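Hey, resending since the last one bounced:
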Amino acid sequence: MGDTKTKQKEEQFQTTVVEGFQLSRTFADGKARMRDVELGEELGYPNTHSLRKLFESLFQSKRLNRSEVMELNSKTSVRGGRPGREFWPTREQALLVIIRSDQPAAIALTAKIIAVFEAYLDGKVRPANDNGITLEDVRGLLAPLYAAITQHSHQIQHLYGCASLNGRISLDDRCLVAALKCQIARKEVEAKRFAKLRQANSDIQRELREATGWGGKNERQADMPAGVVGKALTCLRNRLDAVNRQLQTMKQTGFDFGEN
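The structure tokens again:
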């Protein structure tokens, strides 16, 4: 009886292939989801185990909720063996995984995943012999969106130094706060305002607390209220401008502010 139910579930589970990615909405919550296997291949991971280690890391750090990412038994090879587990993330979850992967293909893949999900959700995926709209048509319509995403990513890299932080780009301003803090701390050590990064980070955190009234010992940056983020970014940008001016003066005059 149990085997019959399992077979019925497998028969009811339907997938659609879009640009080489397997997608499905045959889940209890009805959300469109993507299989992790193709995602890992596009990111350049040597095997699915590498990508699933990233998933596990995101679960442990609470950036992803395991209960919200569907898991299915993967098919065994012809040689048999124990079946593994496949992760089926939603579009938002897949984008988070891409951003956190730090893989060279991550930024380009972001636009591709958006296009794939848009085509799938809009019902624009047709059989090969259908004369209706194709995925290429949809990609053409979304071209301005791709350009905007790429431009935004480049602006963040250029203005806030995220490229030096393993190339990580995040859509969350809280992550931008963290990136700016790291950027400023390194520059202030370079400018010899502080001898160690730890000292610079401590002083930056002190200034942020004074400027925003937030940031106690047990308060995590990930929980920073939206109203505080704007004040924090303003404070950090002003401090970054100041240290950049000092470094520029040092470069032009050869004067070392750290020497007595």
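The CA atoms of residues 126 and 179 lie 43 Å apart.

Sorry for the duplicate.
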